[in-house]
Amino acid sequence: MSSQSPRKISVSEILRRKREHVKIVAITAYDYPTSLLADRSGVDIILVGDSGGMVVLGYQDTRPVSVDEMLMMAKAVSRGGRRALLVGDMPFMSYQAGLEEAIRNAGRFIKEAGMDAVKIEGGREFAPTVRALSRVGIPVMAHIGFTPQTTPTLEGYRVQGKTVEETAKLVEDAVSLAEAGAFSLVLEMTTVEAAKAITEAVPIPTIGIGGGPFSDGQILVLHDVLGLFERFTPKFVKRYLSLSGEILKALQTYRDDVLNGQFPGEEHSFHMDIAEVEKLQLRARRPN
Ligand code: KIV
Question: Is pLDDT of 1 > 50?
Answer without folding.
Answer: no
